[in-house]
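task queued by scheduler; priority normal; single chain, no ligands, no partner chains; default sampling; output format set to structure tokens
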Amino acid sequence: MRKTSYPEQVMLDTIRRAGSDEGLIVEEGHRLGLFEFDAFLPDYNIAIEYDAKYSHDNSISEIRDNEKNQAAALNGIRVIRVRSLACPVLDPFDGVEVIDMGTEGYWEWNKVFPKLLNKLRDMGVPVKDVKVDSRGDELRIRAGYMKPVKNNIAITHPSVAAEWDRVKNFGLSPQCVSRGSHLRAWWKCSYCGKSWHAMVTDRCGQRHSGCPHCNNSSIIRSMKKKAVMQAKAASVSC
């Protein structure tokens, strides 16, 4: 299974939605010899790379990125790089376009990927404008690629995982997140049945946050207290 990242998946999702009306084919992880491209449009021979600071700001990555650009040029492939300003400036190659990206994060991704669509249109790719909401669409996008991980919350925090709202989380499984995740997910209270939004780490960490509806309800609080007392009594009788 190839490594990927959330911003890379936001980029792929943006291109696919923008080209859906025209049946645009978008390949993920296209290989060219020893190299792999994040996205590839085979009908237009265009490769697209997302160059984040954390993985492209060193000399080894600089050499490899230049070699990848050269390999693409030799094979007649045009390249667009959405590249962090913190990364080294690459050697100039014909057919290689760079879209500069500032501080990485939700707001920057929302701004830079529409620029990518404009660049694709300039290169003859029929894509429409689409809204990029990397924060609001996070659960939908993550549900499309995240896989189960070791020590997921279904194992480490089964009572918390039991309140995972699969419907509002677009089918994403609690087996795909660990207790330290900052993903903001939906939960469905096992007491009152209402849903709320909270980070996984807040639910599983020291804060151990619970349902805000129940926390504001004296009736529910008394029900919880009674349930705890009954559980203690049952354990003593055993």
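post-processing summary
- Residues 50 and 82 are 5 Å apart (CA to CA).
- Residues 218-237 form the longest helix (20 residues).
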